[in-house]
Amino acid sequence: MSFPTVAGRRAGRLTLVTAIGATLLPQPSPAAAATPLDVQLQRARHQLDAVVEEYNQIRADLASTETQLAELTPRLGPMRRAVEQQRGKVGAIAAGAYRVAASYKVGMLLTANGPHQLTDRILVVTRLADNQQKAVANLDQANHHYRKAQQALAMLAASQYKQRAQLTAKRQHVEGEIYRLRQLIDDAADRGTPRPDPNRPRGGAVDTDGVPAPAGITGAAGRAVRFAYSQIGTPYRFGGSGPDGYDCSGLIKAAWTAAGRNLPHNAAGQRGVVRDIGRSDLRPGDLVFYYGDLSHVALYIGGGRIIHAPTYGENVHIDSLTYAPIHSFGRP
User: Fold this and answer.
1) Does 248 participate in catalysis according to the annotation?
2) Burial of 240 by CB count in 10 Å (0-12 exposed, 13-18 middle, 19+ buried)?
């Protein structure tokens, strides 16, 4: 799958986003202009999104490693028994060959009663040699497979250890970013700025009160959209894929799981498995990816609107398509 060229289209896209945003939003008065604290909050939210998606990727990698470990570990026992079995065969054949060699002196071959007896004695010795070669080859092959499996298991165990440490560190990073965002919100409240409404869209004047899921959206996309509507008001929870909380990619994963399609729990991973589409092709159920680092994803529901799990302190809600810089669009 080829990704859209962001560098070539970003300037035009951002200009278009700005223009559309200007038509959708009421023009702010000078007093309503973004304050340094607003800028800090927006930056903190974006940083939190990015760290959460990194956490989700590490968690997915760890789950894959543990699945491979669970599949490989039970196979080691039979492989070890196969090696022991082949080693036993080689030993038995070697012992038999020794006994034959002791009884079949060179003189016995030379004093055979006719060519038929000589041929039979030579065939016995040849068969023993062939059997021994085959047994040794089988032992070598069994040993090779067993050693490779042991090496793979050791590498997986090392990866598991490393990924668990990374996951712990990333979780602490996420918790630190959440704490920092909470402190900024508390500071804003101390200065008289109202605490943000967890259900208030940040992308513009979007009416979300009692909005039913749009009719006429059929198939898998319709099921995904209806599921997302049913989750409006659910709190944001990092690493969450429902039912008591979601992060951005967790909501998308849950919505499309309800539609029968399994997606990764990571925005960049989701971008990697969906079909690239243009903005003019957008239809309900498509995915909208935000920021240059693919740190946020939302579900398009039509009419220039999305449903997403925005960030800490906010609930799943409807927002404007242009609430943040758009990276690209995709269709599961």
Assistant:
1) yes
2) buried
Q: What is the CATH number of domain 199-332?
A: 3.90.1720.10
Give me the catalytic one of 248, 265, 317, 327. 248
Q: Is 145 assigned a catalytic role?
A: no
Residue 46 annotated in active site? no
Q: What is the DSSP string of 141-206?
A: HHHHHHHHHHHHHHHHHHHHHHHHHHHHHHHHHHHHHHHHHHHHHHHHHHTTPPPPPTT--SSS--
Phi and psi angles of residue 308, each rounded to the nearest 5 degrees, phi first = -150, 165
DSSP-based three-state secondary structure for 64:
helix
pLDDT one-digit tens code per residue, 107-151: 554 454 545 544 555 555 566 666 667 777 777 787 788 888 888
The label of the residue with tokens 């967790």 reads 250
Domain ranges in the chain are 71-190, 199-332
Question: Is the whole-model pTM more than 0.90?
Answer: no
